[in-house]
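Q: Got a minute? One more chain.
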Amino acid sequence: MRKINNFLNKKIIKSLVAIIIISTLPACDKSPSEHLQGLTEDKYPVANMPNEPLETPLEINIEPKRLAMTSSWSAGVKDDGTLWTWGTDGLLRDTKTGQDPTPRQVEGVNDAVAVSGDGSHMLLLRKDGTVWGWGSNRYGEVDPNDDDTFIEELRQIKGISDVVDIEADTYASIFLTKESKVYYLGSNQWHILKNVDKDKLDAPFKISGLKDISRIEGSSGYILALNTQGELMTTYCIKNAVKVFDSDSNEICNIPFEKKVVDFAQGVADFALLEDGSVWSWGQNFNGEAAQGKTNGEIDIPTRIKGLSKVTNISSFAANTLDGQLYTWGHYLIGESPEPMASSMRRLHEPILIKNDIEVSSFSSNAYIAGFTTKNGGVWFWEGNRSGQRGTGEVVDTFYEEYVFTPEKSLFTLN
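A: Always. Here it is, folded:
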């Protein structure tokens, strides 16, 4: 159940650790332990690549976010600038039941550039640099001047303009402008702004000390930002990080690497892809979130992930290699999942191979659902589909391994 956020050691945990309730599982042909044993290295081999660098160094990934998911619906932006949605609730269009697992166009939007989602709200970036949001508004992440906790229509976010990158996370909206300035809107209950004595911000707040930024990711706990020189900056200073800015409101550190960072991802654990195709991670690893084996704790400093090399694209849960291999890690729900939920968790402490011959352009994920777009405009999903988030035209309420770890092509495409 990836990216449902709590906090530990001042960091947002983007995974709700599922409680294993084996005794409440309904009767079925196989026991839970037999289902879990179905995950074998023969079917899903563990990454075991030699430590070899890419022959041609990678460039910084500035691919726009074209696919987004919340815990109940998904959205995508096509090449022609139209916005499409599918799933349950938050669809910005009328349905008979509030649910539609088939991707359909949202009327009135033909100038979309990017979309980002997490938790239960989404952000939409338009060609004119304005940002629009919908969904959860509990901490004013869409409209701090509206007391409604859920915004059902597209609403422009005031106080921000000339935006080139967006990031939606639980209780948080983050913006990067064309002047490389980073702004934050949403919850401050975990003091992402150190000396701002408010749980909810009234307007987007500039994060001082972040300069020449090309990409952002973040949450209501901390922000990661990559500058144009390939240096990874953070508002949460980890061990061995170098402080480059400190003020009453913000503390900015540089996370040192020997080579240029070209891609990164924030999650329970954080990840950096270097120009040589190596992947490094740090942060929590109780359930394999950092893909560093069974360490049962925190990874204090960036550590290279063994067995992964010649990687060209990453997220906090997956990696794609130059030869088209797709690997994933972390924890996944396995077994039947009726209401109330009764399920087991499968912990993947090392990257496992789930698909070959795929060329990822960008990843996206949320609770129960993981997905990616491809270079040829395809959209794929794996993990869950309880609310129709895969966009295949059907709802599938199952968490068996064969379904969870099988990427499935969506009806939605980018072109």
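A: Residues 249 and 377 are 41 Å apart (CA to CA).
Q: Perfect, thanks.
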